[in-house]
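Worked example 4.2. Below are the chains of a multi-component assembly; read each line carefully before continuing.
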Amino acid sequence: MARSPRRPRARRERPPAVVARARPSALQLGIVAAVAIVAVGALIVLGNAGQSAAPPPASAAGIHATGNAMGGAGAPVTMEEWGDFQCPACRAFALTSEPRLRTTYVSTGNVRFVFHHLAFIGQESTWAAEAAECAGEEGRFFDLHDKLYALQGAENGGTFTKANLMTIAHDLGLSSGFDACLASDRYAQRVRDDTAAGQQKGVSVTPTIFVNGRKVEGALSFDQLRPIIDPLLK
Amino acid sequence: MTTRAVRSAAFGIAGIGTAISAYLVWVHYSGALAFCVGVGGCETVQSSPYAEVAGLPVALLGLAAFAIATALTTVRLRAAASASTLTGLFGLTLAGALFALYLTYLELFVIHAVCPWCLAVDSAMVALFLLTVVELRGAP
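Applying the procedure described above to all two chains together yields the following structure tokens:
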């Protein structure tokens, strides 16, 4: 098809007056910078306003515990948790899901809850695990368990040194036997054995919970656990 | 570095930042890190009380900022982009970079755990701000 001769299209040049300014003025930049700084300040203040003290520890009081197990041996459902006292997800589970599990299922004799150590985040995980076992000698495993999760700090940041663990135990009213127990590393092997047993069962993350043998990974909420537990009670 | 190269780099970084932020938002809502894998870092940071501001996940704020930055840098790939997009990018990335530095401070000195993905998006935001300053200084 023959192309009709066309006048070459002249590139339209805008008159300088209407060309968009390519560079913002110093005043514009100053105003924007001030707004940005105020906005970030507000965000930081808002964020800090949302911080609150550590939530109150869940109470283990009133439920019979033997060592690391809570609830009757004849309960139809056994929940076995592998956890680490330095693990934030275990903390979330301990402080939000466990209190309701205890009042709904453990205190009613339907669930026996057992805590095993998977002390894998560092030295302070091992010390904290040993401390819980020492508290277990006095029937206070879960009291210390709850307290440790409530007080959890930065990983291996000094929260769970032996000296601090002794102070925490004294605050809970544990006897001087606790100090001797922790100082002697009496339960170091037990903690290692627990960790090894968990790894043999395929536990690679914490918390991992076995509900009558069914493996559940992560900090499940009470409402997520209910449909797993209830059918086992029928 | 030519203006075109600066704009292309900003566009690329904004895109990468958007992708990583989207991943962090997904992690936040899926609860995929609601367990500990023993290597520390992201699960500590993401489950810390600082992971939310007034109920909004920080990751979501990051995603919104990077999405807007991507839109602005896309517009600025055109040669005749207006000054207002550059002003907007300057304000956004300045706020973003300041907040990123604050979050990095929290990771290092308050939470005592460093999440590599969070560091990546923080660095991307600071880089975007620097590129915006470079363009402002070199703009005709």
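Take a moment to check your reading of the output against the notes. Chain A touches chain B through 43 residues (CB under 8 Å). The longest helix of chain A spans residues 26-49.
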